[in-house]
């Protein structure tokens, strides 16, 4: 049995046929596209009970760029962290420089 879970179905007119999957065993949030490409937000658990996550890298393949995919991944990760009482260290430059300044609703999740 897999511990991975679909945590958000995308509600987008641009790319309506994908879901964000939290692949816990691979410590990432991912979107798998029909063409075989994968977008991902990678993290490392920190601390004995993994109550903190260092989100250190966001990647969107060139075939999917410009569609808001990184934002969808980030929203899924931050929503999951908030719902599960986790804190995020946003060491990824996309998260700290682009996503968070435009998403004040996730301020409480940041460590």
Global mean pLDDT: 86
Largest sheet: 6 strands, mixed
Radius of gyration: 13 Å
How large is the count of helical segments?
2
Instruction: Identify the quaternary structure here.
Output: single chain
Percent of residues in β-strands: 25-35%
Shape: globular
Number of strands: 6
- Indicate the structural class: alpha+beta
Order of helices and strands: EEEEEHEH
User: Into which percent range does the helicity of residues fall?
Assistant: 10-25%
Q: Regions with pLDDT < 50 over 5+ consecutive residues?
A: 9-15
What does this 3D model show about the protein?
The protein has 111 residues and is an alpha+beta fold. It is 20% helix and 32% strand. The chain contains two helices and six strands; from the N terminus they run βββββαβα. The chain has helices spanning 69-83, 93-99; strands spanning 5-9, 19-23, 28-32, 38-46, 52-59, 87-89. Strands 1-2-3-4-5-6 form a six-stranded mixed sheet. Strand 2 (19-23) and strand 3 (28-32) form a beta hairpin. The longest helix has 15 residues, at 69-83. It is globular and about 35 Å long. The protein starts with a strand and ends in a 12-residue tail after the last helix.
Task: From the structure above, extract its key features.
111 residues, alpha+beta, 2 helices, 32% strand
